[in-house]
Design goal:
By secondary structure, the protein is α/β, with parallel strands linked by helices. Helix 3 runs parallel beside helix 4. It is built from twelve helices and 14 strands. The structure holds pyridoxal-5'-phosphate (PLP).
Length: 373
Protein backbone atom coordinates (compact mmCIF):
# COMPACT_ATOMS: atom_id res chain seq x y z
CA UNK A 1 0.00 0.00 0.00
CA UNK A 2 1.19 3.46 -0.90
CA UNK A 3 2.58 5.71 1.84
CA UNK A 4 -0.26 8.14 2.74
CA UNK A 5 2.23 11.00 2.52
CA UNK A 6 2.63 10.40 -1.22
CA UNK A 7 -0.85 9.04 -2.04
CA UNK A 8 -2.53 11.19 -4.71
CA UNK A 9 -5.05 13.73 -3.45
CA UNK A 10 -8.03 13.77 -5.81
CA UNK A 11 -9.97 16.84 -6.90
CA UNK A 12 -13.09 15.17 -5.48
CA UNK A 13 -13.30 11.98 -3.38
CA UNK A 14 -16.69 10.31 -3.79
CA UNK A 15 -15.50 7.09 -2.18
CA UNK A 16 -14.65 8.91 1.08
CA UNK A 17 -18.20 10.23 1.20
CA UNK A 18 -19.74 6.85 0.44
CA UNK A 19 -17.65 5.20 3.17
CA UNK A 20 -19.06 7.70 5.68
CA UNK A 21 -22.72 6.93 4.89
CA UNK A 22 -22.55 3.34 3.63
CA UNK A 23 -25.06 1.67 6.01
CA UNK A 24 -27.77 4.29 5.38
CA UNK A 25 -27.25 4.17 1.62
CA UNK A 26 -27.35 0.37 1.55
CA UNK A 27 -30.56 0.37 3.61
CA UNK A 28 -32.19 2.93 1.31
CA UNK A 29 -31.21 0.99 -1.81
CA UNK A 30 -32.39 -2.29 -0.24
CA UNK A 31 -35.74 -0.61 0.48
CA UNK A 32 -36.16 0.24 -3.21
CA UNK A 33 -35.12 -3.25 -4.31
CA UNK A 34 -37.50 -4.87 -1.84
CA UNK A 35 -40.45 -2.76 -2.98
CA UNK A 36 -39.34 -2.98 -6.64
CA UNK A 37 -41.16 0.19 -7.63
CA UNK A 38 -38.27 1.37 -9.77
CA UNK A 39 -40.16 4.11 -11.62
CA UNK A 40 -42.04 6.81 -9.68
CA UNK A 41 -41.56 4.98 -6.39
CA UNK A 42 -42.47 6.71 -3.11
CA UNK A 43 -38.83 7.78 -2.65
CA UNK A 44 -39.24 10.18 -5.59
CA UNK A 45 -42.11 12.24 -4.20
CA UNK A 46 -40.62 12.06 -0.70
CA UNK A 47 -37.33 13.51 -1.98
CA UNK A 48 -39.12 16.13 -4.10
CA UNK A 49 -41.03 17.42 -1.08
CA UNK A 50 -37.95 17.55 1.11
CA UNK A 51 -35.81 19.15 -1.59
CA UNK A 52 -38.40 21.88 -2.25
CA UNK A 53 -38.38 22.65 1.50
CA UNK A 54 -34.55 22.67 1.48
CA UNK A 55 -34.69 25.34 -1.26
CA UNK A 56 -37.43 27.32 0.55
CA UNK A 57 -39.53 26.78 -2.57
CA UNK A 58 -43.02 25.44 -3.09
CA UNK A 59 -42.38 22.58 -5.52
CA UNK A 60 -39.59 20.37 -6.80
CA UNK A 61 -39.91 18.09 -9.80
CA UNK A 62 -37.27 15.39 -10.17
CA UNK A 63 -35.92 14.80 -13.67
CA UNK A 64 -33.21 12.76 -15.36
CA UNK A 65 -30.34 15.27 -15.10
CA UNK A 66 -29.52 18.97 -14.78
CA UNK A 67 -29.48 19.55 -18.53
CA UNK A 68 -33.02 18.19 -18.91
CA UNK A 69 -34.04 20.29 -15.90
CA UNK A 70 -33.00 23.42 -17.82
CA UNK A 71 -34.59 22.24 -21.08
CA UNK A 72 -37.90 21.32 -19.44
CA UNK A 73 -38.03 24.57 -17.46
CA UNK A 74 -37.52 26.55 -20.68
CA UNK A 75 -40.13 24.42 -22.47
CA UNK A 76 -42.66 24.83 -19.68
CA UNK A 77 -42.08 28.60 -19.78
CA UNK A 78 -42.90 28.34 -23.51
CA UNK A 79 -39.51 29.57 -24.66
CA UNK A 80 -38.89 28.41 -28.23
CA UNK A 81 -37.84 29.32 -31.78
CA UNK A 82 -37.32 33.03 -32.37
CA UNK A 83 -36.68 33.71 -28.68
CA UNK A 84 -33.40 34.82 -27.15
CA UNK A 85 -32.19 33.61 -23.76
CA UNK A 86 -29.36 35.41 -21.99
CA UNK A 87 -26.70 33.52 -20.06
CA UNK A 88 -23.02 33.82 -19.24
CA UNK A 89 -20.06 32.87 -21.43
CA UNK A 90 -18.19 31.03 -18.67
CA UNK A 91 -20.44 28.22 -17.62
CA UNK A 92 -20.70 24.53 -18.41
CA UNK A 93 -22.02 23.97 -21.93
CA UNK A 94 -25.29 22.44 -20.65
CA UNK A 95 -26.65 25.90 -19.77
CA UNK A 96 -26.51 26.97 -23.42
CA UNK A 97 -27.27 23.50 -24.82
CA UNK A 98 -30.70 23.62 -23.18
CA UNK A 99 -31.44 26.97 -24.85
CA UNK A 100 -30.59 25.48 -28.25
CA UNK A 101 -32.56 22.31 -27.43
CA UNK A 102 -35.82 24.29 -27.26
CA UNK A 103 -35.01 26.08 -30.54
CA UNK A 104 -34.11 29.43 -28.93
CA UNK A 105 -30.88 31.41 -29.36
CA UNK A 106 -28.32 31.76 -26.57
CA UNK A 107 -27.10 35.30 -26.01
CA UNK A 108 -23.93 35.43 -23.95
CA UNK A 109 -22.89 38.14 -21.51
CA UNK A 110 -19.57 38.60 -19.75
CA UNK A 111 -19.22 38.14 -16.00
CA UNK A 112 -18.24 40.04 -12.91
CA UNK A 113 -14.44 39.60 -12.63
CA UNK A 114 -14.56 39.21 -8.83
CA UNK A 115 -17.35 36.65 -8.50
CA UNK A 116 -17.59 35.12 -12.00
CA UNK A 117 -21.36 35.55 -12.29
CA UNK A 118 -23.89 37.46 -14.40
CA UNK A 119 -24.41 41.08 -13.39
CA UNK A 120 -27.69 42.98 -13.53
CA UNK A 121 -26.04 45.64 -15.71
CA UNK A 122 -24.74 43.01 -18.14
CA UNK A 123 -28.16 41.42 -18.32
CA UNK A 124 -29.91 44.73 -18.83
CA UNK A 125 -27.60 45.73 -21.70
CA UNK A 126 -28.18 42.43 -23.53
CA UNK A 127 -31.99 42.50 -23.50
CA UNK A 128 -33.65 42.96 -26.91
CA UNK A 129 -37.31 42.73 -27.95
CA UNK A 130 -36.66 39.00 -28.61
CA UNK A 131 -35.41 38.25 -25.09
CA UNK A 132 -37.74 35.88 -23.27
CA UNK A 133 -35.60 34.67 -20.40
CA UNK A 134 -32.29 34.84 -18.57
CA UNK A 135 -30.34 32.00 -17.00
CA UNK A 136 -27.95 33.30 -14.34
CA UNK A 137 -25.60 30.54 -13.16
CA UNK A 138 -24.53 30.29 -9.52
CA UNK A 139 -21.07 29.30 -10.66
CA UNK A 140 -18.83 27.21 -8.41
CA UNK A 141 -21.42 27.54 -5.60
CA UNK A 142 -21.31 31.36 -5.51
CA UNK A 143 -24.82 32.85 -5.70
CA UNK A 144 -25.41 35.40 -8.46
CA UNK A 145 -26.79 38.86 -7.46
CA UNK A 146 -30.39 37.70 -7.63
CA UNK A 147 -32.17 40.73 -6.13
CA UNK A 148 -30.72 42.98 -8.84
CA UNK A 149 -31.24 40.40 -11.59
CA UNK A 150 -34.89 39.84 -10.59
CA UNK A 151 -35.41 43.58 -10.50
CA UNK A 152 -34.22 43.94 -14.12
CA UNK A 153 -36.22 40.87 -15.19
CA UNK A 154 -39.45 42.21 -13.66
CA UNK A 155 -39.02 45.65 -15.18
CA UNK A 156 -38.25 44.19 -18.62
CA UNK A 157 -40.82 41.37 -18.42
CA UNK A 158 -38.48 38.44 -18.91
CA UNK A 159 -38.42 35.12 -17.07
CA UNK A 160 -35.52 33.96 -14.91
CA UNK A 161 -34.29 30.40 -14.51
CA UNK A 162 -31.51 30.02 -11.94
CA UNK A 163 -28.96 27.42 -13.01
CA UNK A 164 -28.17 26.16 -9.52
CA UNK A 165 -26.43 22.96 -10.69
CA UNK A 166 -23.38 23.87 -8.61
CA UNK A 167 -25.02 25.63 -5.69
CA UNK A 168 -27.31 23.42 -3.57
CA UNK A 169 -27.85 25.29 -0.32
CA UNK A 170 -26.20 28.57 -1.35
CA UNK A 171 -28.03 31.80 -0.45
CA UNK A 172 -27.95 35.46 -1.28
CA UNK A 173 -29.22 38.11 1.16
CA UNK A 174 -30.42 35.29 3.39
CA UNK A 175 -32.58 33.76 0.65
CA UNK A 176 -31.78 30.32 -0.76
CA UNK A 177 -30.89 29.80 -4.41
CA UNK A 178 -33.83 28.08 -6.00
CA UNK A 179 -36.32 30.44 -4.37
CA UNK A 180 -35.50 33.57 -6.40
CA UNK A 181 -36.33 32.88 -10.03
CA UNK A 182 -39.45 31.78 -11.89
CA UNK A 183 -37.73 28.40 -11.73
CA UNK A 184 -34.37 27.01 -10.70
CA UNK A 185 -32.64 23.92 -11.94
CA UNK A 186 -30.31 21.54 -10.14
CA UNK A 187 -28.00 18.78 -11.25
CA UNK A 188 -27.36 15.85 -8.94
CA UNK A 189 -24.40 14.62 -10.99
CA UNK A 190 -22.35 12.51 -8.57
CA UNK A 191 -19.67 15.12 -7.83
CA UNK A 192 -22.11 17.94 -7.08
CA UNK A 193 -22.61 19.20 -3.50
CA UNK A 194 -25.69 16.97 -3.47
CA UNK A 195 -24.87 14.15 -5.85
CA UNK A 196 -26.68 10.97 -6.86
CA UNK A 197 -25.02 7.69 -7.86
CA UNK A 198 -25.68 8.34 -11.52
CA UNK A 199 -27.47 11.09 -13.44
CA UNK A 200 -30.30 13.01 -11.79
CA UNK A 201 -31.69 16.54 -11.62
CA UNK A 202 -34.64 18.67 -10.50
CA UNK A 203 -36.56 21.81 -11.29
CA UNK A 204 -37.69 23.90 -8.33
CA UNK A 205 -40.36 26.59 -8.48
CA UNK A 206 -42.97 28.43 -6.47
CA UNK A 207 -45.37 28.31 -9.42
CA UNK A 208 -47.76 25.36 -9.06
CA UNK A 209 -48.83 25.43 -12.72
CA UNK A 210 -45.24 25.46 -13.91
CA UNK A 211 -44.43 22.51 -11.63
CA UNK A 212 -47.43 20.62 -13.05
CA UNK A 213 -46.33 21.37 -16.62
CA UNK A 214 -42.81 20.08 -15.95
CA UNK A 215 -44.19 17.00 -14.19
CA UNK A 216 -46.19 16.26 -17.33
CA UNK A 217 -43.35 17.01 -19.76
CA UNK A 218 -40.86 14.75 -17.93
CA UNK A 219 -43.22 11.76 -18.24
CA UNK A 220 -44.22 11.62 -21.93
CA UNK A 221 -46.69 14.48 -21.57
CA UNK A 222 -48.89 12.23 -19.43
CA UNK A 223 -51.97 13.52 -17.69
CA UNK A 224 -52.96 9.92 -16.81
CA UNK A 225 -51.47 6.54 -17.67
CA UNK A 226 -52.78 6.41 -21.25
CA UNK A 227 -53.67 10.05 -21.79
CA UNK A 228 -50.91 12.26 -23.19
CA UNK A 229 -51.81 15.93 -22.94
CA UNK A 230 -48.71 17.11 -24.83
CA UNK A 231 -45.58 15.68 -26.44
CA UNK A 232 -43.10 15.29 -23.63
CA UNK A 233 -39.94 13.32 -23.02
CA UNK A 234 -38.79 10.51 -20.76
CA UNK A 235 -36.75 12.26 -18.12
CA UNK A 236 -37.94 11.01 -14.74
CA UNK A 237 -35.90 10.93 -11.57
CA UNK A 238 -35.01 7.27 -10.93
CA UNK A 239 -36.41 5.79 -7.72
CA UNK A 240 -32.96 4.40 -6.82
CA UNK A 241 -31.35 7.81 -7.31
CA UNK A 242 -34.12 9.46 -5.28
CA UNK A 243 -33.43 7.02 -2.43
CA UNK A 244 -29.71 7.89 -2.49
CA UNK A 245 -30.50 11.61 -2.67
CA UNK A 246 -32.95 11.27 0.21
CA UNK A 247 -30.17 9.97 2.46
CA UNK A 248 -27.66 12.56 1.28
CA UNK A 249 -30.08 15.50 1.58
CA UNK A 250 -29.95 15.05 5.35
CA UNK A 251 -26.19 15.66 5.26
CA UNK A 252 -25.81 18.41 2.69
CA UNK A 253 -25.92 21.33 5.18
CA UNK A 254 -23.16 19.74 7.21
CA UNK A 255 -21.13 19.00 4.05
CA UNK A 256 -21.58 22.58 2.82
CA UNK A 257 -20.30 23.86 6.18
CA UNK A 258 -17.31 21.52 5.87
CA UNK A 259 -16.64 22.89 2.37
CA UNK A 260 -16.81 26.45 3.71
CA UNK A 261 -14.34 25.52 6.45
CA UNK A 262 -11.96 24.02 3.87
CA UNK A 263 -12.26 27.21 1.80
CA UNK A 264 -11.47 29.34 4.87
CA UNK A 265 -8.35 27.24 5.49
CA UNK A 266 -7.24 27.62 1.87
CA UNK A 267 -7.91 31.38 2.12
CA UNK A 268 -5.78 31.68 5.25
CA UNK A 269 -2.92 29.57 3.92
CA UNK A 270 -2.74 30.79 0.32
CA UNK A 271 -3.22 34.52 0.92
CA UNK A 272 0.53 35.03 1.25
CA UNK A 273 1.33 34.16 -2.36
CA UNK A 274 1.17 37.36 -4.41
CA UNK A 275 1.04 35.37 -7.65
CA UNK A 276 -2.33 33.83 -6.72
CA UNK A 277 -5.81 35.37 -6.66
CA UNK A 278 -8.17 33.66 -4.27
CA UNK A 279 -11.95 33.35 -4.70
CA UNK A 280 -13.92 36.24 -3.15
CA UNK A 281 -17.33 35.81 -1.54
CA UNK A 282 -19.93 38.16 -2.99
CA UNK A 283 -21.40 40.62 -0.46
CA UNK A 284 -24.47 39.10 1.16
CA UNK A 285 -23.70 35.77 -0.47
CA UNK A 286 -23.36 32.36 1.13
CA UNK A 287 -20.93 30.51 -1.11
CA UNK A 288 -21.06 26.71 -0.86
CA UNK A 289 -17.76 26.05 -2.67
CA UNK A 290 -18.73 23.37 -5.11
CA UNK A 291 -15.30 24.30 -6.42
CA UNK A 292 -12.45 26.31 -4.90
CA UNK A 293 -11.08 28.21 -7.87
CA UNK A 294 -7.87 30.22 -7.72
CA UNK A 295 -6.38 32.35 -10.48
CA UNK A 296 -2.77 32.68 -11.55
CA UNK A 297 -0.92 34.15 -14.51
CA UNK A 298 1.34 31.10 -14.18
CA UNK A 299 -1.60 28.69 -14.31
CA UNK A 300 -0.10 26.17 -16.74
CA UNK A 301 3.13 25.80 -14.77
CA UNK A 302 1.25 25.54 -11.48
CA UNK A 303 -1.21 23.03 -12.92
CA UNK A 304 1.63 20.81 -14.16
CA UNK A 305 3.53 21.13 -10.87
CA UNK A 306 0.45 20.10 -8.83
CA UNK A 307 -0.48 17.23 -11.19
CA UNK A 308 3.11 15.93 -11.20
CA UNK A 309 3.00 16.00 -7.38
CA UNK A 310 -0.18 13.88 -7.25
CA UNK A 311 -2.59 16.72 -6.50
CA UNK A 312 -5.84 16.56 -8.49
CA UNK A 313 -6.67 19.86 -10.16
CA UNK A 314 -9.20 20.95 -12.79
CA UNK A 315 -10.07 23.86 -15.05
CA UNK A 316 -13.72 24.89 -15.01
CA UNK A 317 -13.77 25.87 -17.84
CA UNK A 318 -10.82 26.22 -20.23
CA UNK A 319 -12.83 27.38 -23.28
CA UNK A 320 -15.61 29.94 -22.79
CA UNK A 321 -18.84 29.08 -24.54
CA UNK A 322 -18.66 31.84 -27.17
CA UNK A 323 -15.40 30.31 -28.44
CA UNK A 324 -16.66 26.71 -28.47
CA UNK A 325 -16.90 25.19 -31.97
CA UNK A 326 -20.46 24.12 -31.12
CA UNK A 327 -21.49 27.79 -31.03
CA UNK A 328 -19.52 29.00 -34.04
CA UNK A 329 -22.75 29.87 -35.84
CA UNK A 330 -23.33 32.65 -33.28
CA UNK A 331 -20.40 34.42 -34.93
CA UNK A 332 -18.34 35.30 -31.86
CA UNK A 333 -14.59 35.73 -31.77
CA UNK A 334 -11.75 36.24 -29.31
CA UNK A 335 -12.08 39.53 -27.44
CA UNK A 336 -15.90 39.52 -27.30
CA UNK A 337 -16.05 38.62 -23.58
CA UNK A 338 -12.67 39.59 -22.14
CA UNK A 339 -13.33 38.66 -18.50
CA UNK A 340 -14.50 35.16 -19.39
CA UNK A 341 -11.51 34.74 -21.71
CA UNK A 342 -9.06 35.92 -19.06
CA UNK A 343 -10.59 33.57 -16.51
CA UNK A 344 -10.39 30.63 -18.94
CA UNK A 345 -6.65 31.19 -19.14
CA UNK A 346 -5.96 31.71 -15.44
CA UNK A 347 -8.36 29.64 -13.30
CA UNK A 348 -7.44 26.45 -11.47
CA UNK A 349 -9.73 24.33 -9.25
CA UNK A 350 -8.03 22.84 -6.18
CA UNK A 351 -9.08 19.66 -4.32
CA UNK A 352 -12.38 20.44 -2.57
CA UNK A 353 -14.59 17.95 -0.76
CA UNK A 354 -16.01 17.83 2.76
CA UNK A 355 -13.88 14.86 3.82
CA UNK A 356 -10.49 16.31 2.85
CA UNK A 357 -8.17 15.96 5.86
CA UNK A 358 -5.98 18.58 7.53
CA UNK A 359 -2.96 16.59 6.36
CA UNK A 360 -4.15 16.54 2.77
CA UNK A 361 -4.88 20.27 2.86
CA UNK A 362 -1.44 20.94 4.28
CA UNK A 363 0.10 18.93 1.48
CA UNK A 364 -1.81 20.87 -1.18
CA UNK A 365 -0.65 24.15 0.37
CA UNK A 366 2.96 22.98 0.77
CA UNK A 367 3.02 21.79 -2.84
CA UNK A 368 1.77 25.20 -3.99
CA UNK A 369 4.39 26.89 -1.78
CA UNK A 370 7.11 24.80 -3.44
CA UNK A 371 6.11 26.11 -6.87
CA UNK A 372 8.59 28.62 -8.19
CA UNK A 373 6.61 30.98 -10.39
C1 LIG B 1 -23.64 24.98 -14.39
C2 LIG B 1 -24.18 23.66 -14.87
N1 LIG B 1 -25.35 23.62 -15.52
C3 LIG B 1 -25.90 22.47 -15.93
C4 LIG B 1 -25.27 21.27 -15.70
C5 LIG B 1 -25.88 20.03 -16.26
O1 LIG B 1 -26.15 19.05 -15.34
P1 LIG B 1 -26.16 17.50 -15.74
O2 LIG B 1 -24.73 17.08 -15.91
O3 LIG B 1 -26.80 16.84 -14.57
O4 LIG B 1 -26.94 17.36 -16.99
C6 LIG B 1 -24.08 21.24 -14.99
C7 LIG B 1 -23.45 19.95 -14.67
O5 LIG B 1 -22.36 19.61 -14.85
C8 LIG B 1 -23.50 22.46 -14.57
O6 LIG B 1 -22.35 22.50 -13.90
Amino acid sequence: MRDPATRPIPLVDLKAQYDAIKPEIRAAIDGVLDRSQFINGPEVSDFEGRFAAFCDAGFAVGVGNGTDALTLALKALKVGPGDEVITTANTFIATAEAIVAVGATPVFVDVDPAHFNMTAAGLSAAITPKTRAAIPVHLYGQPAPMAEIMDVAKRRSIKVIEDAAQAHGAARDGKRVGSWGDAATFSFYPSKNLGAYGDAGAVVTNDEDLAAAIRMLRDHGRAHKHLHECVGVNSRLDTLQAAVLGVKLGRVEEWNEARRAVAAKYDAALGKFPWLNLPAQAPGGKHVYHLYVIQSDRREGLRRHLSDSGIGVGIHYPVPLHLQPAFRTLGHGAGDFPVSERLAGSILSLPMYPEISEKQLRRVVQTIAAFNP
